[in-house]
Specification:
By secondary structure, this protein is α+β, with helices and mostly antiparallel strands. The chain has 15 helices and 16 strands. The protein has an eight-stranded mixed β-sheet, with helices on both faces. Helix 1 packs across helix 11. The protein starts with 12 loop residues before the first helix and ends in a 50-residue tail after the last helix. The structure holds adenosine monophosphate (AMP).
Length: about 475
């Protein structure tokens, strides 16, 4: 037996279904915003993160999984994905034509050597978006609103959006000077991390979680008093636009984020589960005005993005029973009454699967009683029984496991029969599972596509469903 590496976890079975559901919902919503998927390597040169996330960040100072490869190159398992996305955009010259913006989304594992605790792992999964080539504050609003509405789509009702402006370079320089002056007389009593932060990037001190330090931080100067007119105007435009979109927010002038590349607008999404548990920020992001240039892209090119922690989303959704609509039922469980019909049972299952019915077949030679038990355990809608008579008459017994009604159906009519018994009801051929009636494939899923039906799984038909469980809202 080998133990899991500390801070990691297996995502398997039903739990994995939840991850898939959350990721698919986010991915499909990102597609509606015209974000394109980027898959970048999990390993990158260490200096990419030193340059982007920043030498003064906790991530670079203490949390990176860095090693020398056999060619003596310093390699790091990505602690976040923004840097890799921007590197990829720059390397592939996607901004070279000034063809702004490039809109990317990503999903995948990240690695940070943190102290494992509730909502904090050493390997965790992030979904995120980046907009490279921001020329208007409304692109920041687009990113924020994407996050906000995506979380609503997942079922988060009482979201709290915290937002702040770190200002432009000039604002931050003035603010840093003010903070340096303020903390000078306290720094000796503060924690060792704060002492380092004082030297490396005094702004980071505002992120300190140590109780005694918090008392000192409470009375520190506020960034809002140091914003240039330009930054103030930018921030106000963002806030006004959020108001117009009906997105509630709370200005939190202690919010600085843990990554050095942010400037101007930064934000976090918070949520407390119905059990009263908070898992930290579900998602967070902000604007970056230097990152793209520092990684080798156009100097004047700004961007913004956000990342969400899938582990945290899943935990809170479990607490708040937001997965209740997830359908793990089976359409059919095919039960051969003796070993000699196993091959026929397999053929029928194959045809069912090719026709879009989620099916399992018993090939273990179990008794009828054991097979019914298994069918119930698998949450099957129909038990399909094949015995000697059925083989002779080229038919099959279809037993509806909820009504307990059964009838013999000709093999040539089986698909139509199931279509009318499962398909007419609800999800069949509309695996969106949104438990709405799709009659004629209409009114599918959470968004209205005007006769263009987007279902969440490809069904090999003209109808693609969009989302597992949410109706239009
Ligand atoms: P960051 O990249 O630090 O801005 O984090 C973005 C989001 O990733 C956070 O809001 C969390 O939801 C998630 N996250 C960050 N670190 C961890 C971690 N160690 N374990 C689980 N989720 C994390």
């Amino acid at each position: 037996m080998f133990n899991l590496v500390k801070g990691t976890h297996d995502i398997i079975l039903n739990e994995a279904d939840k991850y898939t559901y959350v990721e698919q919902t986010l991915v499909q919503f990102a597609e509606f915003y015209n974000f394109k998927e980027f898959r970048t390597p999990i390993i990158e040169s260490s200096d990419l993160f030193q340059r982007s996330v920043g030498d003064s960040s906790d991530i670079v100072r203490k949390e990176m999984y860095t090693f020398l490869d056999k060619g003596d190159r310093s390699i790091t398992l990505r602690p976040e994905i923004t840097a890799g996305i921007i590197r990829s955009i720059v390397n592939n010259k996607l901004l070279a034509l000034g063809d702004y913006p490039v809109k990317a989304y990503y999903v995948g594992p990240c690695f940070r050597y943190e102290r494992p605790q509730q909502g904090r792992y050493r390997q965790f999964n992030q979904f995120g978006i980046e907009i490279a080539g921001v020329t208007s504050p409304y692109r920041d609003v687009e990113a924020i609103s994407f996050g906000y509405f995506a979380l609503k789509l997942l079922g988060f009702e009482n979201l709290k959006l915290k937002i702040n402006s770190l200002g432009d370079d000039e604002s931050r320089k003035n603010y840093r000077d003010a903070l340096t002056k303020y903390f000078a007389s306290y720094i000796d009593q503060m924690c060792d991390d704060c002492k380092d932060r004082y030297k490396l990037n005094v702004l980071r001190i505002l992120d300190c979680k140590v109780q005694e330090d918090q008392e000192i931080i409470k009375n520190a100067p506020k960034i809002s008093d140091y914003l240039t007119d330009k930054s103030k105007d930018y921030f106000n435009k963002v806030l006004k636009s959020l108001d117009e979109l009906g997105i509630e927010y709370e200005i939190d002038d202690g919010l600085v984020r843990g990554l050095d590349y942010y400037s101007d607008v930064v934000f976090e999404f918070h949520y407390t589960s119905s059990k009263g548990l908070s898992y930290g920020a579900l998602g967070a992001g902000g604007h970056y005005n230097k990152l793209i240039g520092e990684i080798g892209g156009p100097k004047d090119c700004e961007g913004c993005g956000l990342a969400m922690g899938i582990e945290r989303l899943v935990s809170v959704m479990e607490d708040d029973q937001l997965f209740d609509n997830l359908d793990d039922s089976l359409d059919c469980y095919v039960m051969p009454l003796s070993m000699e019909y196993q091959s026929d049972a397999l053929n029928i299952s194959s045809s069912l699967r090719l026709n879009g019915f989620k099916s399992e077949v018993n090939l273990e030679g179990k008794s009828l009683k054991a097979m019914f038990k298994k069918a119930n355990k698998l949450n099957a809608k129909f038990a399909l029984i094949i015995g000697e008579d059925e083989i002779k008459t080229n038919s099959i017994i279809c037993k509806d496991l909820s009504s307990e009604q059964q009838e013999s159906v000709g093999i040539q009519d089986l698909i139509d029969y199931l279509d009318s018994h499962i398909g007419s009801d609800e999800e069949h051929h509309h695996e969106c599972g949104c438990s709405s009636n799709h009659e004629g494939h209409e009114n599918c899923c959470c968004h209205n596509h005007e006769n263009d039906h987007h279902c969440c799984h490809e069904h090999g038909q003209e109808h693609e469903c969009y989302n597992e469980s949410k109706k239009e809202n």
